[in-house]
Amino acid sequence: MKRCISIFTIALLLASCSSKQKTEDIQLAKTILADKNLIFVDSLARQVIKEGFNAGSGYSQIWARDLNTFIETALEERTKEEVRGAILVFFKMQQKNGEMVDGYVLKKDFTWHDDTPYYSENDPEHVGFKNTVETDQETSLIQLLGKYITKTKDHSILEENIGGILVKDRIQLMLDYLNRERYNKEYKLLWGAMTADWGDVQPHDDFGCDWNNLSNEAIDVYDNAMYIIALKTLIDIMPDAKKINEWKSLKKEIEINTMKHLWDKKQQKFIPHIYPKDSPLPEGFDENKIHYHGGTTIAIESGLLSKEQIKIVNDQMLENVRLSGMPSIGLTIYPTYPEGFFKGWMSKPYAYQNGGDWTWFGGRMIQQLVLNGYTKEAYQQIQPMINRVVKNKGFYEWYGKNDVPSGSGKFKGSAGVLSKAILLMNDWAKETLDKK
Predict the structure, then answer these.
(1) Measured torsion, CA atoms of residues 43, 45, 47, 53, in degrees rounded to the nearest 10
(2) What is the CATH number of the domain that holds 307?
(3) Other beta carbons within 10 Å of 20
(4) Angle (nearest 5°) at CA 44 between 432 and 331
(5) Is residue 101 in a domain?
(6) In the prediction, which pLDDT does 87 show?
(7) Of 82, 92, 150, 345, which is most buried by a Cβ count within 10 Å?
(8) Number of domains into which the chain is organized
(9) What pairs with residue 324 in β-bridges?
(10) Of all helices (H) and strands (E), which one includes residue 264?
């Protein structure tokens, strides 16, 4: 009898907790849908994105990694044909070795010095460029192509013939390039140059964006998580491809080896880098004290972390924000690299990618919190990002100490990730209210 009462009591407690949670969810849903700041920021984001596909004010170039983060909103504010055309220019600019450019610009707008501009006979009107310290160009393009196809159902873009090669075959050429030129056989993971987290600036030369004799080969979670997402994208949009089993096998391999070599089980965080050759770090400097917020966010998007692990790393991000005094979880890294490790103005802590606060990645973490069942936390943690957009009436590229805005004032990557985060929260709220 006592046991029956005990079970009955537990059942009542569970029902009570469930009822309380449902009530809290309904209240949160109403709050989200009534939040005028969210409505304002989404509207402003759409206005900014409607202006074009370049990265933002101060940037005439169209970048794959940027477009990847606002293409879904762009498809709602521009015509499908315009977006399709912008994507196809990337494939026209593909190099003969399969390599993809970072981005492109009309020849008349190519006004800066570049030792190695990229040209293609398939599109003589444009000039391409690439920050060769990075390894996310090919994977960004595949992801944005997948988002385009998913939203428009326009699979015909895969059959577009460019220079005698179909887009779907050019995709495989990109994968071949990565597996040939940026694949470490020992760790069976992609590599790039040592940069701060997802960044495209290496420490020991003035420009910092091109691979050279000062570069250090490094393996990090960001590049490999981006690859996992790209392979998953291909599996989803081309399930009948001849290479489907190869892609599935490669995806599994990258997933296993990323967690095997880059996940620190004891500290429940990703280590910043593996250096297969020479390390650029000062003697005695423990790089593994640094948390990489951006790479961790992309790892969550790729499906590498469980729901429990997502809570752990999110709590770490919040603690890093508290300790740093920075405004939001868009904080790139914490702690920062020491002053002078990077050259130029990025040598200062909390400048640019050395600890600057980037909504461009913070907004993606908000998206992942919603998608993984942490909408309450997402709504709380998006507030600093929303409030500064309202205050500044714009989407700045990054923020320094005391929330000081820097860089482009209309950074479309930031606009895109916030617009999508707001959409996800609104969808959750509407679904919650429909169930009540």
Answers:
(1) -150
(2) 1.50.10.10
(3) 10
(4) 75
(5) yes
(6) 97
(7) 92
(8) 1
(9) none
(10) strand 263-264
Q: Which residues of the chain have pLDDT under 70?
A: 1-16, 56-59
> Residue 421 is part of which domain span?
35-435
The DSSP string of 121-162 is TT-TTEEEE--TT---HHHHHHHHHHHHHHHH--GGGGG-EE
Task: Calculate the CA dihedral of residues 291, 294, 298, 301 and round it to 10 degrees.
Answer: 90
Cβ 83 vs Cβ 426: under 8 Å = no
Q: What angle do CA 341, 300, 219 make, to 5 degrees?
A: 40
The conformation of residue 184, written as its DSSP 8-state character, comes to E
Residue among 188, 211, 80, 238 at smallest CA distance from 137 = 211
Share of the chain above pLDDT 70, in %: 95
How many whole angstroms separate alpha carbon 325 and alpha carbon 340? 21
**Both tokens assigned to 223:** 């590049």
3-state secondary structure string, 14-73?
HHHHHHHHHHHHHHHHHHHHHCHHHHHHHHHHHHHHHCCCCCECCECCEEHHHHCCCHHH
The answer to the question of residue 6 being in a domain is: no
User: Does residue 5 sit within a domain?
Assistant: no
pTM score above 0.90: yes
- pLDDT tens-place string over residues 316-374: 999 999 999 999 999 999 999 999 999 988 999 999 999 999 999 999 999 999 999 99
- Asked if residue 29 is part of any domain, the answer here is no
The pLDDT tens digits for 245-282 are 999 999 999 999 999 999 999 999 999 999 999 999 99
- Tokens (6 digits) for 378: 């997402």
CA distance 222 to 271: 11
With 0-12 / 13-18 / 19 or more C-beta atoms within 10 angstroms meaning exposed / middle / buried, residue 255 is buried
